[in-house]
Structures are given as C-alpha cells and as structure tokens.
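Page 37, continued from 36.
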C-alpha cells in the first residue's frame, strides 16, 4: 500500500494554509494528525496532488473556556481532550468520548479538527458534538465563519468545507442548570470504531426532564440527533420507565444500512440498546 506521488507544503499559519489550498485549486488536502488521511492515501482512495501540513501551527492547539463554551483547537489531540482537567470539569461527556477513540496511539496523534473534518460515520466525537450543539470554526478565502456541526457533516466522509477552508476549532456549549451526560459505545474489536455510539445529556429539575439531547453515531450512514427520543423524554418524570419508552424511538431517524460488521436490523437494535444505556447513566 503505497500512496501516489504528491507534493508537500508546510503551512506556518492558518492564513498561509488557506492561501496554499487556494493556490492548488482543489488538488490539495490538509494534513493534521494523519490518522484519517494517511490510510486513505495508502489505499489510494484519495490521491491529492499536494498535502498542506498544518501540524506546526501553534494557534490551532489548546483548550479554553470562552463564555459558555469549551473551545478545542483543531490540532488538539483526543488524548489531550480526554486528560484535560478543564474538559473533565466542564464537559465530562466529551472527555469520556475522547477516551474511547481508537487506541492509545490514535488518541495521541489523531486530532479533534481532523476527526470532525473527516466525517467518518463510525467516529465517536460527532455524537457528542451533535448532542451538545457544537459549532465548527472555519477559516477560508472569504474570512472566518462558524458552522453548526449539524450543518457541517453532510454525509459519509462529506462536509460543508470548501476546498480552500481550514478547520480552526470546535466549540462545545456547556449545558446550563443541573445536567448529566454519558457516552456509551459498542466498539469494533479490532479498529475501535463505533459499531454503535450514543452521547446523551439530560437536564432534570424537580424530578422532571427539562432538557434532553441524544447524538448517535456508528449505526447509520451519518451521525444524527435522535429528536424523537428527545421529544419523548422532555416533560416526563426522570426515571427508568421514561427512558425505556423513549429509547425505542432511537432508530426512527437516520439512514440505516448493513455492512460486513453488522446488519441493518442489528444496528437498529444497537441504537435502541445503547441509547437506553447512555440515558440511564444520566438519571439523577
């Protein structure tokens, strides 16, 4: 498995990366951690003429709180998110999901920006990003912009990124009030990818569910928000019966299909089971 020949450019700033991408007019790909792109290159599933390496741009690294959001730089690794005291304090569900990405080597090299931009339908972080209404910050030829992750991920390996755009950061809003979150996953035993992964967030006041967010990955062609599950929970007493009933709607949305890892019926079953598991952990 040898990639096709390509030229290599190392960008020293986000602006330079955008300029390099624009100069090569759709023939270039961005290289960050490489754990998504390099395997595709080796299999020749993609053959860009140029790789633009953004790995040395320090401004794309780091984790901070800005207002009511945790902002994660695009080059921040999964391992850094999983071990961050700030993330574990403000958004433990994000730290929990990051800790389950791949194996130790993948977590130490793979980046949050690369993960979201790759848009693998079996990736862990999109489930949390959807549940938390995360926003992707993008720099392009026309300047900076922000795109809700629900509008950013369009399909399997497909996003709204333009050919000359660079992901700068991902901002995860911190839910307000009393809330708990959980990420439950059925991993593929070899790759660690999610055959099913569910991120759930519940806000409960006086024993009543006031807010419910459920993001599901792995089971469908594109990660999705389980809106029918959420609607079935809001206004209900926070208990196992409400969770059981609502979880049965987990496969009411999403474009399901089978593959060599799991049939369509089994993926639907897993979506219900792991939605229930995640929601039960969110109960007070």
């Amino acid at each position: 498995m040898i990639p096709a020949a390509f030229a290599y450019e190392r960008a020293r700033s986000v602006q330079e990366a955008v300029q390099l991408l624009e100069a090569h007019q759709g023939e270039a790909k961005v290289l960050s951690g490489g754990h998504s792109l390099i395997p595709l290159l080796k299999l020749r599933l993609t053959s860009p003429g140029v790789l633009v390496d953004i790995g040395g741009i320090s401004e794309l690294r780091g984790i901070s709180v800005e207002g009511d959001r945790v902002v994660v730089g695009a080059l921040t690794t999964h391992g850094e998110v999983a071990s961050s005291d700030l993330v574990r304090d403000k958004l433990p569900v994000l730290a929990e999901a990051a800790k389950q990405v791949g194996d130790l080597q993948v977590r130490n090299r793979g980046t949050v920006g690369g993960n979201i931009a790759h848009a693998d339908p079996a990736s862990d972080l999109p489930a949390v990003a959807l549940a938390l209404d995360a926003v992707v910050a993008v720099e392009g030829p026309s300047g900076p912009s922000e795109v809700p992750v629900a509008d950013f991920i369009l399909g399997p390996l497909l996003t709204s990124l333009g050919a000359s755009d660079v992901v700068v950061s991902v901002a995860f809003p911190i839910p307000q009030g009393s809330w708990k979150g959980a990420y439950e996953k059925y991993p593929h035993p070899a790759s660690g990818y999610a055959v099913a992964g569910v991120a759930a967030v519940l806000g409960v006041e006086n024993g009543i569910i006031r807010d419910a967010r459920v993001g599901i990955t792995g089971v469908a062609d594109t990660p999705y928000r389980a809106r029918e599950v959420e609607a079935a929970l809001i206004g209900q007493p926070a208990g196992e019966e409400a969770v059981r009933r609502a979880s049965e709607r987990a496969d009411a949305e999403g474009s399901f299909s089978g593959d060599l890892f799991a049939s369509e019926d089994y993926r639907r079953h897993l979506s219900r089971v792991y939605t229930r598991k995640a929601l039960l952990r969110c109960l007070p």
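The chain has a mean pLDDT of 95. Flag for discussion at group meeting. Residues 264-282 form the longest helix (19 residues).
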